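Supplementary Methods, section 5.1.

A reviewer requested that the exact input to the structure prediction be made available. We therefore reproduce it here, unchanged from the version used in the analyses.
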Amino acid sequence: MTATASLPLSRLLDLSADLMQGVRDGRSATDLIGRCPPDARAGVQALAFDVLRRLGAATELRALLAPKAPPPRVDALLCTALALLWPTPSPPYPDHTLVDQAVTAARQRTPAAAGFINAVLRRFIRERQALVAAVERTPLGAWNHPAWWIERLRQDWPTQWQALLRAANQRPPMTLRVNARRCTGAAYVQRLAAAGHAATLLEDPALAGQAVLLAEPCPVQQLPGFAEGEVSVQDAAAQRAASLMLGEGEHALGSGARVLDACAAPGGKTTQLLERADLDLLALDSDPQRLPRIQDSLQRLQLQAELRAADARETARWWDGRFFDAILIDAPCSASGIVRRHPDIRWLRRHDDLLALTRIQSELLWALWPLLRPGGHLVYATCSIFKTEGSQRIDAFLQRLPAGAASLDPASPGHLLPVADNSGSTAAPALEDGFFYARLFKP
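The structure derived from this sequence is encoded token-by-token as follows.
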């Protein structure tokens, strides 16, 4: 990792510290990156995401090195630099460069604190081995997640919680979805090779031969045919939704089937369904400001769907009385399964958030199940690894329904975990984000 040609590292550190402080104040990293100067966004995202993955350790380090907390702007820059100085197999910058540029940033940001930051960083480098060992004896320093998050994983996955936390601190792979109307996955791998990008076709049948894993991430503008709608970026776990929705055998959707995507933004699953089948698809989202993003994707991919801003739970406001052949509920959730892709989530979420989210998930199931025709199926999905948002939510729903009113497809993937012994996934370890899927049939 190096500074961009147009911006010095000191400026990127300054902007990254602002972003980290914004996350501490409860703001989304994605929104904050969008407000950075355009020429700084890529560099700030790379730096800040590394910092957020080690923010727990950096916070504990700062407490050891400076027990009296400095002012927030000083603390943000100091913790940013400490996180980037944390020992890794491939350090982003040499120690002396990082210290020099952090001090330069301090002189511009908080001049009176430049000497303090210089002294703290240099002490850390001198005593790094002992300080790292001390920090790693604390849960926050060892796992870089809040205590409540760690404890929930211990309860849900007693033999896998440590592997899940380690996976969450890794950089994610970049997986592509090849437009089935335009090209096969195998052919697109060859196109990538010709363009200088090594890639692998993911062979899992549930991915329909359209999922491609890049050896190294790259800007979408470098992907052959991206602007023309030949390929999109979508994690492999999210790509499993289409096969579950389209079904097979007696449950296969025919041409023109009426389909609801109840929580559609940003539109990845909507567009994938339309790439693979001719459907009468209604895409809802409760936030009207998110609909343009779905429309932009539809236009790029040359697809059509009906878009509507509505809370799917309030069926009287949007449903026209025609039953659906299939319904997808990609429900709002903690996003605990995609934290490696969005490392700010762990610091933004609170334990109490789960109570509100699980209530919404249950309300969506109860509101939409009556809209499904007899013989149809509903797919419930969350990008979560917490059981309360997955298996426990579906179990509670089925237990409250009358006997025989619904059946859980025994082939439902269930919880997909980015760990080696995840029996629900045939993909190699850590190639996919954490997800939960259940398919329910209405007799």
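The chain has three domains: 9-144, 175-233, 238-441. These observations are discussed further in the main text.
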